[in-house]
Amino acid sequence: MDIKPIRSDADYQTALRDIETLMAAEPDTLDGDRLDVLVTLVEAYERKNFPMDLPDPIEAIKFVMEQRGLAVKDLEPMIGRRNRVYEVLNRKRGLTLSMVRKLHSGLGIPAESLISKEAEDRRPA
Q: Which GO biological-process labels does this protein carry (predicted)?
């Protein structure tokens, strides 16, 4: 079986079937290397053809707050004083890099969700 670029849905489906047959391959073997290459090709094809929209950072924060039963005061160590937390949650103030790092570390929100280009575009001027 030759490895070739994935250019169509048929190529993609073939690559997925090939990956399935190679899932038990040992690393550093011919089949293991083939699996690594196929997975890389599939990931690239999926990124290009099935992009995932990252959630709005404020919605992601609110979702985590709701899921964990957190209050505004619980965000103070990550964002700052209570009034600053309210400003961020009400989109009156953007997230700083320091806030993003602390929210990522403290709440486990993916940093990409907190700093995405789309999120910057949605932020009020």
A: regulation of DNA-templated transcription
